[in-house]
Amino acid sequence: MAGQGPEAGFVVEYYYKVRWGHQQEFLELFRRNHLPVLERERELGRILRMAAAAPRYHATEDGRWDYRVTIVFRDAAAAAADSPVTGSETEMRRLFPDRGLFEREERTRFEILKAHWDLPLVDVELTGP
Question: N or C: which end of the chain has fewer CB within 10 A?
Answer without folding.
Answer: C
